[in-house]
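ok so for the tutorial part 2 we go from a plain amino acid sequence to predicted structure tokens. step 1 is just haveing the sequence, like this:
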Amino acid sequence: MTQDLANLTDQALAAAKSAGADGADALAVSETSLSIAVREGALDQADRSEGVRLGLRVMVQGRQACISTSDIRAEALAEMSERAVAMAKVAPEDPYIRQAEPGAFATNVDATALDLFDPSDEPEAAQLQDRALAAETAAMGVDGVSQIQSAEAAFGASQFHLATSQGFSAGYSRTSHHIACVAVAGEGTSKVRDHDFDARIYNSDLRSATDIGTRAGERTVASLAPRKPPTGTFPVLYDERVSGTLIGHLLAASNGSSVARGATWLRDKLGQSVLPAGMDLVEEPHRARVGSSLPFDGEGLPTAKRSIVTDGVLQGWTMDMSTAARLGLESTASARRGTSAPPSPGVGNVRLTQGTQTRDALLRDMGTGLLLTSLIGSSINDTSGDYSRGAGGFWVENGEIQYAVSECTIAGNLLSMLATIVPANDARQHMSRPIPSLLVEGLTIAGA
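step 2 — the prediction. this is what the tokens look like for a chain of 448 residues:
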């Protein structure tokens, strides 16, 4: 299939050239997915999909257009290319459109070192159903669980191939195995729900369905009888399950597209402290058996380890070629793309410096405050960093959990929040973003 995709992108580029494009790039994707959901001990839903998609970007006299299709017949590719060129001719001129030159391309691409493809046999539907049933049974076995909202097991396999008119052509494959369970406890308006899941490249690395179901049930029962917390200013400990959202806001604010628009609260912070001293935030695109690893970016540039924050200081922006041109800088090989849009900057794997204390030790240090385990909605001011989110979790007094919390709001400013975070040591290392629990001082909590 990989060679078929390479041939397909070659055909698309040839068709674009024949249609009059000055330059073009093509991304071909082949995907297979199978998911099985159960309910009350029986099959509830089974979905399988297989398909090939092609995305074509053409450039004509400083203008560009993107078009995608699942019709990969030669005549369809020719027609698509003609439409794309016609669209590009009437698109607004963009002086920052770029394609990588041959000397900049990733060379000798060997994705096998990243170990992104599980060579074992694709699981049968019956195997996935057994996993989903095991998760459901385990969750229902937790005292206090009243029903299972969903229990699902899934498998996916994808192949990608990128080619450009400047001579780049390479691809790679990826697999995924997934188990998830959502449990419900309580009755009527007092119902609560929580979940657990695991997703891995290799089936052999996947946690057991029984463990996932049990944890989903235990988390749900622990959330029974929630109350509103007191209103005031308190420390908040972001549990490892949600701590990545804080770092996600930092990554979004340091994205070159936001910087180019001036719509970021980090616009004047380059070379300044944005995290506590001693903390690093590093992009690691070559971690083995991690779903967001990439041998090259969406423009064919070689990916590499990159420091985003070093010793608390912001080192640079995340850029593809276009945003780098807007900012007068060089691409950080951070282009991401799908089949229906041009490249844009983004970050996959990142690692934040861990602390030395456990989450429970941070709870004891926190004294009185909120252990945050869920977030609902958001209101983030892109230019000021003002932050407000609906929240749930557990109220803590004297370092001990007292009761479950729901229907409250937490608010602060991301600049001051991130400047004082204290990390725990509980990051899950197999995640694309191993971010530990994070203690934040002085957030405003609106509760009772």
